[in-house]
Amino acid sequence: MTAIASLDLEALAALTYIDEHPCLDDRHAPTAYWCLPGTEPGTPIRLVHAEFCAGSGVFPGSEVFAIYRPLLDSRPRLWGLQELPADYPSSKRPGVPKSRYMLFVVSGGDPPSGFTIRLTADGLIQGIGYGCGDRPEKIWDAWLGTAQPLLAPPAAPRPR
Q1: How far is CA 81 from the centre of its chain?
Q2: Greatest Cα-to-Cα distance within the chain, rounded to the nearest angstrom
Q3: Torsion angle of the four alpha carbons 87, 90, 92, 95, in this order, in degrees rounded to the nearest 10
Q4: Which end of the chain has fewer CB within 10 Å, C or N?
Q5: Is the pLDDT of residue 57 over 90?
Q6: Per-residue confidence (pLDDT) for residue 54, from 0 to 100
Q7: What is the distance between the alpha carbons of residues 83 and 104, in angstroms, rounded to a whole number?
Q8: How far is it, in rounded angstroms, from Cα 118 to Cα 15?
Q9: Which residues contact 137 (CB under 8 A, 6 or more apart)?
Q10: In angstroms, rounded to a whole number, what is the distance separating the alpha carbons of residues 92 and 81?
């Protein structure tokens, strides 16, 4: 993806699928789903999806730049690509596009760590997964039982 290679935050944000979900007044729901003060329950709110070490989450659409910053700060590069099966349950809500591909990206750190970016069939970013410092090979191998490799990673992934 050119937006990643060029570290273009604006381009990544423009390619990100922003989900809409009715806001909730239930304080047991994830924070991103809460209605803002003075907002009627059920009012649509904009959300982005990301997975960090603490678990999966949804974040207000306004935080799209903050979600990508750790990835771009790590000097990433493309590492591999896998295709998810057509029945992969990446989205259970009607109207939300399903993830179709897993793009694997490696940080420029030492040792390198892996990230995943879920893409829809039309190239939108469905979500990003921060690998919690896991080696790229470990993340790649974890998806092999689910997805089909389209672009295999290099034998010795060492970012330059």
Answers
A1: 14
A2: 55
A3: -100
A4: C
A5: no
A6: 67
A7: 11
A8: 12
A9: 114, 153, 157
A10: 23
pLDDT at residue 159 tops 50: no
Select from 35, 11, 7 the least CA-distant residue to 21.
35
Computed over every residue of the chain, the mean pLDDT equals 85
Give dist(CA 49, CA 17) in Å, integer. Answer: 9
Preceding amide of 85 cis, omega within 30: no
**Residue 140 near residue 157, CB atoms below 8 Å:** no
Q: What is the pLDDT of residue 90?
A: 74
The model's confidence at residue 160, banded by pLDDT at 50, 70 and 90, is very low
pTM of the model: 0.82
Q: Please report, to the nearest 10 degrees, the dihedral formed by the alpha carbons of residues 39, 43, 48, 53 taken in order.
A: 60
